Amino acid sequence: MYRIGKEEVAAVARVIEGKKLFRVGAPYQEVDNFEREWAQLIGAEHALCLNGGTTALIAGLAGLGIGPGDEVIIPGYTFMATAIAVLAVGAIPVIAEIDETMTLDPQDLERKLTPETKAVIPVHICGFPSNMEAIMELSQRHGFKVLEDACQADGGSYKGKRLGTWGHAGAFSFNDFKIITAGEGGALVTDNYNVYERALIYHDGGAAFRPYAGELKSPVFVGSQFRSNEIAGAILRVQLERLPGILEDLRAVKKKFVDRFRKYMIPSNDIAGDCGTTVGFSFATEEQARSFATSPGVGGWLPIDSGKHVYKNWDPILQRRGAHHEAMNPYNFPENQGLRMNYSEDMCARTLDILSRTVYISLNPDWTEEELEARLDSCQQALDSQF
Ligand SMILES: Cc1ncc(COP(=O)(O)O)c(C=O)c1O
């Protein structure tokens, strides 16, 4: 649903004409500037641009010091990448329920906390804000770190504060399915310099000989290669300028659905901060949901059908294949023995129930007035004739 055009073409041309596509030492400093501009837009002290949202999550967990021996609680409704990121740093993902807002249920989170819970990843799925007040209150009481997965919520907010800035760090994605894009891409934000610096080191296997190495406060450790590049940076700087307009238009479209179909709407933790990419209808049964979704002109779909966004379909996780090599599989680490890793397909029954009774319609900020009205009318007809 992103917008892209000649401004991005001009930005890419500028980089190619400068003949330096690597971010370090580039004449236009596209990635450096994007990091500054993203930090400012989101309202965070530090931003690190990376090559994806998964890598932003991994670098974020590494920045927060999460590793073997740690449990990280994640919701059962998120893209599998959230769980993969936890395993990538050697920790164990523990799966918790969502509530009717489609985001992590703070009550189930509290029930699932143990002394081994060192981090929690609330996911602002489909741009729906998680209940950050409740989650941060638990974090303060129990001492776990919070890494927000805002990969589907670029620019969203909760109670007037941007998503990604409520927790100790926040991760964004700019892949092809996101609100803004560079084809692939991601960002990590945090107010904590130490977290930023550790993520910076982790994301750049060559950190030891980069110009900034001399300024680092902590010793360089071995990380990986998650760097962005000047082409992506140049595109993202234009995309960032488009973001407020996209969000405004998406929210205006969503408001029409919310105002008209209030009684069917899934609840929101903060509708004003919701990104507006998706409108959710709640039904009593899966049969009703399927009937509405497939009614003429509705164009709906059920989140239970969204493949690797539903924990029961995370085969490598459920079967504890946590790495390419048995000796590097966190499920085999001595530090992780005794942690909760007995997954089953029905372990979060409430999540599956909610996902089966909900219908989504993906919204488009560029629908014409006629297209929008036609969609609204189709929904109205389907609801009037069936319920
Ligand atoms: C909730 C969530 N987390 C993480 C990711 C991973 O982002 P990327 O594909 O940029 O690595 C995605 C991307 O689809 C996502 O939707």
Description:
With 387 residues, this protein is of the alpha/beta class. It folds into 2 domains: 6-239 and 320-334, 3-Layer(aba) Sandwich (Aspartate Aminotransferase, domain 2); 244-305 and 351-386, Alpha-Beta Complex (Aspartate Aminotransferase, domain 1). It has 12 helices and 11 strands. The protein has a 7-stranded mixed β-sheet, sandwiched between helices. Strands 6-7 form a two-stranded antiparallel sheet. Strand 6 (157-158) and strand 7 (161-162) form a beta hairpin. Helix 3 (53-63) packs parallel to helix 4 and helix 3 packs across helix 7 (193-203). The longest helix is centred in the middle third of the chain and has 31 residues, at 230-260. The chain is globular. It binds pyridoxal-5'-phosphate.
Summarize the structure.
With 387 residues, the protein is α/β, with parallel strands linked by helices.
State Rg: 21 Å
Spatially, the strands of the biggest sheet line up as 1-9-8-5-4-2-3
Please write the string of helix (H) and strand (E) elements.
HHEHEHEHEHEEEEEHHEHHHEH
Coarse morphology: globular
Bound molecules: pyridoxal-5'-phosphate
CATH class of the largest domain: Alpha Beta
The average pLDDT value, as a whole number, equals 97
**Helicity, as a percent range:** 25-40%
Beta-strand proportion: 5-15%
Largest sheet: 7 strands, mixed
Query: How many domain modules?
Result: 2
Poorly predicted residue ranges: none
CATH architecture of the largest domain: 3-Layer(aba) Sandwich
Determine the N-to-C terminus distance. Answer: 31 Å
Number of helices: 12
